[in-house]
Write a structure and sequence with these properties.
The chain is of the alpha+beta class. It has a single domain, classed as 2-Layer Sandwich (Alpha-Beta Plaits). It contains 2 helices and 6 strands; from the N terminus they run E-H-E-E-E-E-H-E. The radius of gyration is 16 Å and the shape is globular. The termini are close together. Belongs to the YciI family.
Length: about 110
C-alpha cells in the first residue's frame, strides 16, 4: 500500500534547526534503506492554482495568503498497512515537533 504523507505548516511552525536536519536525515536514510521511502521533498510556499469550470480555466499565482495552513513537504511511502503508515507519521512528528500531517492512500499502478 502506498501512502502520501504531507506535513502542514502554519504561522507558528518554528524554523528548522541543525538538530532537526540531522534527525530527519537519519530517518530518511533508514526508510530508504528499508525500501519504504519512494519519494520525499519540500514544497515552495508559492504555487499556481488551476481551477476549471466547464470550458473555463482560471489560473491564479500564489502564495495564497488566505490559506491558514499550507503543505510544506511530502513523503511517498510503501508500507504493508495503514497502521504502519501511521507509525511512520508518529515518528516524523516526534522529530519535527508539534503540528499536523495528513496521510492519504495512493491508488493506481
Amino acid at each position: 500500500m502506498r501512502y502520501l504523507m504531507t506535513a502542514l505548516t502554519t504561522e507558528t511552525t518554528p524554523a528548522p534547526d541543525e538538530k532537526l536536519f540531522v534527525e530527519m536525515a537519519a530517518f530518511v536514510e533508514e526508510m530508504t534503506a528499508a525500501g519504504i521511502l519512494l519519494a520525499t521533498g519540500g514544497l515552495a510556499p508559492q504555487g499556481v492554482r488551476v481551477v476549471s469550470h466547464g470550458d473555463e480555466l482560471t489560473v491564479t499565482d500564489g502564495p495564497f495568503t488566505e490559506a491558514r495552513e499550507a503543505v510544506a513537504g511530502f513523503a511517498l511511502v510503501e508500507v504493508a498497512s495503514q497502521e504502519e503508515a501511521i507509525e511512520l507519521a508518529r515518528r516524523f512528528r516526534r522529530i519535527v515537533g508539534d503540528g499536523e500531517s495528513v496521510l492519504q492512500q495512493v491508488f493506481g499502478p
